[in-house]
Design goal:
Strand content: 25-35%
Order of helices and strands: EEHEEEEEEHEEEHEHH
Number of domains: 2
Radius of gyration: 28 Å
Oligomer: single chain
Distance between the termini: 59 Å
Helix content: 25-40%
CATH class of the largest domain: Mainly Beta
């Protein structure tokens, strides 16, 4: 509707239809919006991600994982000092809570390992084994970074159970793998030093050969596959 002319002091409005060019521009705009919204789906192969950013590709049955980009300015970009404190909770076979000297509780995800989930075989036993090494004890956490759940990814050290005055010389992450209570988390090996990668790989091989812990089962299910069920 547009102004046409004046008639006896009253404006006369004229109803007009949009021209071809206007309709064409509107159609192109709508089409562009639709294509942008569908871009992630068009570029991705089929199969939704699970909580570990892994999925089965329905087109070929391949199970694999995708890395997520870190958000600029998020906690992941913040320097994290090492933490010394007492373990106040053992959540599962690879996660603990540490209370530092300022009475601040930190959730620590053990770097380089992935333990069975609590609801899968060996999940509770893995948690108990970790608790036997650290529950209620003073530990040193060599902080690596924040993970996507804003837990501190860290390497945990404590005094050996048979020598509490020996200092924090027991590498807890490594001990979990060596006892067959966790997998070496190969997918996130880039978060480890070169030395730790070799150390953890050798520990898993040794646990497998000796059928330690979960490796005593004929077909142990990795936790990342269990989470995908």
């Amino acid at each position: 509707m547009v102004f046409s002319h004046w008639s006896e002091g009253v404006p006369v409005l004229k109803i007009t239809r949009p021209g071809f060019r206007s309709r064409f521009r509107n159609t192109r705009l709508v089409l562009a919006i639709v294509l942008v919204s569908l871009a992630p789906w068009l570029s991705a192969h089929p199969g939704a991600l699970n909580t570990s950013d892994c999925h089965n590709n329905r087109s070929n049955g391949d199970y694999h994982c995708h890395r997520q980009k870190q958000a600029v300015g998020s906690k992941k970009d913040v320097f994290i000092p090492d933490i010394q404190g007492r373990v106040i909770s053992v959540i599962d076979g690879d996660t603990i809570k540490v209370l530092d000297g300022q009475k601040i509780a930190h959730k620590i995800r053990l770097n380089g390992i992935d333990a069975p989930e609590r609801d899968q075989p060996w999940g509770i036993r893995s948690q108990k084994y970790l608790a036997s090494m650290v529950a209620g004890k003073q530990v040193l956490v060599r902080s690596v970074k924040f993970d996507k759940y804003e837990r501190i990814l860290g390497n945990v050290w404590a005094a050996p159970g048979d020598c509490l005055n020996c200092g924090k010389t027991l590498y807890i992450n490594h001990a979990q793998v060596l006892a067959g209570m966790a997998w070496w988390y190969r997918y996130y090996a880039q978060d480890q030093s070169v030395e730790d990668r070799s150390l953890f790989e050798a520990a898993e091989v040794k646990a497998r050969v000796e059928k330690q812990g979960l490796w005593g089962d004929p077909k142990p299910v990795p936790p990342w596959a269990w989470r995908w069920r």
